[in-house]
Amino acid sequence: MTGSSYHPRDMMISSMRTDVATLNTGEFAALARAISSSVRALGLVAPGFRCPTRVLGVDRTMRRFTVDSAAGTVAGIVAVNVKGRPLAAVVADMIEGVVMLNQLSAVEAARVRSVLWQSLERTTSTAHVA
């Protein structure tokens, strides 16, 4: 990322146009930051994201742990495989990790999924216009 301007919106636009994700480490990190920012804006706990998973043959794993049992504070790490997978599948796994970590009800989970997808869509459409 030396010498060039880089923004997650640019990565999302170019990657959504292909059938298979070709995210490099920087692009994955930018996507994780964008999702995490939206999650925190919703007042939810944003997991740490990493790739790939440590389990062969599994596209998504999640570790959830209690940070402060008295306060009920939780944290977690969502790991997803990126290589050879459509970007939409990678994003869906990251969003589903947010839902799982926060143990959302079915109704709240549907709302959060929708808001997160829309936030990424707005990001990409804004970048396309700019």
Distance between the termini: 20 Å
Number of helices: 4
Report the principal-axis shape. Answer: globular
Strands in their spatial order, largest beta sheet: 1-3-2
Number-wise, the strands total: 3
Radius of gyration, in angstroms, nearest whole number: 15 Å
Unreliable residue runs: 1-7
Order of helices and strands: HHEEEHH
Number of domains: 1
Average pLDDT confidence is 84
Beta-strand level of the residues, as a percent range? Answer: 15-25%
Helix-residue proportion: 40-55%
Which structural class best describes the helix and strand composition? alpha+beta
Outline the biggest β-sheet: 3 strands, mixed
Short description:
This protein has helices spanning about 10-15, 25-40, 85-100, 105-130; strands at about 50, 60-70, 75-80. The protein has about 130 residues and is of the alpha+beta class. It has one domain.
Structure, described:
The chain has 130 residues and is an alpha+beta fold. It has one domain. Helix content is 51%, strand content 15%. The chain contains four helices and three strands, in the order H-H-E-E-E-H-H. Helix 2 (25-41) packs parallel to helix 3. The protein starts with 7 loop residues before the first helix and ends with a helix.
List descriptors:
3 strands; 4 helices; 130 residues; alpha+beta; 51% helix; disordered N terminus
